Each structure stands twice: as structure tokens, then as C-alpha cells.
Amino acid sequence: MLAFITRNHTHFRLTVFHALPSPRKPYLYSRLFLYVFAMQIADFIAMLEEIAPPELAEEFDGGRIGLIIEGHDEVNTVCCALDATLPVVRAAVAKGADMLVVHHTPLWNPLTRIGGESGRVIGTALAAGLNVYVMHTNFDHAEGGINDALAETLHLTGVIPLSLGVIGTLTRSLDEVADILGAPLRVYGDVHLPCRLAVAGGSCFSYDHVCEAEAQGAEAFLSAELKHSVIRSSGIPLIESTHYATEAPGMRMLSRRMGWTFLEDIPAMVQH
Length: 272
Description:
Blueprint: E1 2-8, E2 11-19, E3 29-35, E4 39-40, H1 41-51, E5 66-69, E6 74-75, E7 78-83, H2 86-94, E8 99-104, H3 116-128, E9 131-134, H4 137-141, H5 146-153, E10 157-161, E11 166-170, H6 174-181, E12 186-188, E13 195-199, H7 207-215, E14 220-224, H8 228-233, E15 238-241, H9 243-258, E16 261-262
Parallel strand pairs: 7-8, 7-16, 8-9, 13-14, 14-15
Antiparallel strand pairs: 1-2, 2-3, 4-6, 5-9, 10-11, 11-13, 12-15
Helix pairs in contact: 2-3, 5-9
């Protein structure tokens, strides 16, 4: 680890170079900027863009990533979550946060009126001066991002990248996988362990993704939000978890790495 302190006007900055956890590049280095007093918003955004470069985002994410709600000019306290739900925003405000970093934007569609749940999210954040920053598909593709974190959480070895997701060797049982993810699994096909498992956080079951994974040696595929047509067309077993369970590990890991507070907001699910 290397570190040095610089002064910028009234703010002292500690710049730390340290290894980031990545199953593809275990010795990947990056910079963390830890401010003794406060961090200017532009510097904080520059740091986030190092972690998840905007140019890695899918085309459909245009206008949906980055600083989507603008608050205070300085960042002292940071919270992190998968979704900027109203309970999460309220919890961030209660903790005195100046910044909330999330994976999913609360403003997916253009607004023609301010009201309902999205209006309360916006109003609560603006009233408290809470910045909301989104890193979505750019963090999916980033080294040490959503998919690398999922692979590490499941203790996959021999990890190689896909166009979206990664493949690694799974030695844990499927019951252990469910326990690790904190969500039940639905399995279509016979999974023989150990196996080469493709994992992709979020809604990544598609014919093309499954075919790519199979061509790269995957013997099973784990993701979320599986469609019937993909089940019928797949040449390998498919393992379905939840969207939250497959993406939250990436944001939890980021929070730990950066010393932020992670705000859990697991969608309620009742099994009958």
C-alpha cells in the first residue's frame, strides 16, 4: 500500500493506492481518496468514474447514470445501496449522508410530473441536500464490479470474463449458494458439481448470453428473471436467483472497500 497527503485550500486529502478484490485481476490497483474534512463533489465523482468508467455503460443507460440528483457541494458522509428507494433515501438522510451511491436509478423514465414514489424520493433527497449517484451497467462491466463481486461471493475459481458476466468453477453445493445469496434458487436441469458456472448479476438470462457462456465452457448459468423461452432454448442448466440477491453483493463489497455505510433494502418475498 502507498499513501500520501496533499492539501487543497481548506481540505486535506489522503490518497491511498491499494489492491482491489477482483477474481480476474487479484492485484488490480486503484486510488481511494479519503478526505479528513470534506471532499468536493467533482473530486468524488472523478473517483467514482475511476471505479466504474461511464464509457463502459450500455447504450440504453445514456442519461441514467452519474449524478442524477444534485445536493451539497461537499461530501463528508457516504451511504450506498442497490436501489434508491424511499426507505433507503430516508435512511441515508437520517445518517447525515451527503451522498448516496446506488446501482439502479430511481428515475428510469423521463418525468412529466413530480409525484408518487419517485416524487417523494426526489423531494426527500433535495430537501436534505443529498446527492444521488448511479453506477449501473458501467459497474456491471467494470473490473471488481457487480459480476466480479458475485463470483468472489460464491468463491468461484479460475474466473474468465464474458461480454456480460463471468465464468468460474463452483465447488459449493446449490444449498450453500442459496444460503450465501440469501435467496431461494429455482433450478432448471441437472447441475453436476463441481461445475463451470456462468454468473451475471441482475436480469441477464437471454438466448445470446446463455449461448456465449456455453461456448466458453459453462456447464450451468446463474442469473435472475428467467423467461420460459430461454429455459426451452438453453443447452445447459439454468439457476435462477433474484435480481437483488445477484447484484447487492457488488454494492456491499464496494461499500466495505470504500468505508461507506451500506443500506440494506431487500424486497419482501412470501413463498406459498
